[in-house]
């Protein structure tokens, strides 16, 4: 017997995690210092994107675990007609 459990996992994702992480602005000139600053800024943006990905995966995994637990609780209980008959199913 399949019992669908409807948890809206997508609704748990906050708006601030849904947007793109914009790239760093390119260097204003071709100096070494500007390129170093650009690389540092771009690395920071990559860290932000990776953190968002990890957070989204955590939210999804937690939601799926709740779904599995709810389904297990529902399937562990005998159907209503068996409970009326004292659990025998007759």
Description:
With about 90 residues, the protein is mostly helical. The protein has a domain at about 30-75. It has three helices and no strands. The mean pLDDT is about 85.
Low-confidence stretches: none
Q: Can you tell me the overall shape?
A: rod-shaped
| Number of E strands | 0
Element order, helices and strands?
HHH
Structural class: mainly alpha
Mean pLDDT: 86
Portion in strands: under 5%
Describe the main β-sheet briefly: none
CA-based gyration radius: 25 Å
The CA-CA distance between the termini, in Å, is 18 Å
Number of helices in the DSSP assignment: 3
Q: Which bin fits the share of residues in helices?
A: 55-70%
Layout: helices, strands, pairs:
Layout lengths: L14 H4 L13 H45 L3 H5 L6
In short:
The protein is mostly helical and 90 residues long. It is built from three helices and no strands. The longest helix has 45 residues, at 32-76.
Search tags:
single chain; 90 residues; 3 helices
